[in-house]
């Protein structure tokens, strides 16, 4: 039962919830937090459903277990899919939000959502993010009526967290498989490997898919240290508001024109009228220059 469905009768009994994530470490794709909840009286049955830490299972088995839990009317579940652009924006903003804080807020969001549905949550089990006791205290202060168990390896210790691990992992895997590469770089392909920084296929994909002006496709978490060496190779972009007409910046602007960016008024008018010669970044997004506001 997904959270959007009607509230089942068992949800008015004392319930337990497990929360786990998938995709915390990769440089590609979203990070997904998943939760699974059920009546506390269903705890023993839950232990017999063969849920396990998703990392220990083959993809086919994870998919099978996910479909089984979706069909089980005694189980509720939900996910929070955090887009790679959102991750990078938060981690690079002026008042930076680190990955632990993002993770905490995602878990808190899932708990809040399920409580607001009317589910009587009394116990929540989570894998630790940062210091376990500090995390437990933070959650207990936010939700004083709920008992929290924060533990390392919770996904292998508690079946309700193992189920949440499967929900998160399958959702992320499907998101990667179905990801639409809106960008139109030449010879763009999907052979990006596991998405983890140490994977040679992932590193080769990053090298091949960086753009000298526009950086990486939206699939990439460009705030990751893995991207730093590639970013150093990109050209310096001068924005129009930063240009001093007497500073002799024309040469730099001419250099940018080689990548599909130009400040020549006549050239801009020609491109806008014909649509030819525009950088593929603009073509894909159907962006046009505004002359009047």
Descriptive account of the structure:
The protein has 12 helices and 5 strands. The protein has 293 residues and is α/β, with parallel strands linked by helices. The longest helix is centred in the middle third of the chain and has 19 residues, at 159-177. The radius of gyration is 24 Å and the shape is elongated. Mean pLDDT is 83; it is low at 249-257.
Quick structural gist:
40% of the residues lie in helices and 13% in strands.
Kindly list the characteristics that best describe this protein:
293 residues; alpha/beta
Query: Ranges with pLDDT <50 over ≥5 residues?
Result: 249-257
* Largest β-sheet summary: 5 strands, mixed
The strand line-up of the biggest sheet is 3-2-1-4-5
**Helix-strand pattern:** EEHHEHHEHEHHHHHHH
Based on CA inertia axes, which overall geometry fits? elongated
Helix proportion:
25-40%
Estimated share of beta-strand residues: 5-15%
Mean pLDDT across residues: 83
The number of helical runs is 12
C-alpha termini separation: 48 Å
Broad structural category: alpha/beta
Radius of gyration: 24 Å
| Number of β-strand runs | 5
Question: How are the secondary structure elements laid out?
Answer:
Layout: E1 15-22, E2 31-39, H1 43-47, H2 59-71, E3 75-82, H3 84-92, H4 99-116, E4 121-127, H5 132-142, E5 147-151, H6 154-157, H7 159-177, H8 200-209, H9 228-231, H10 250-257, H11 265-274, H12 280-285
Helix pairs in contact: 2-7
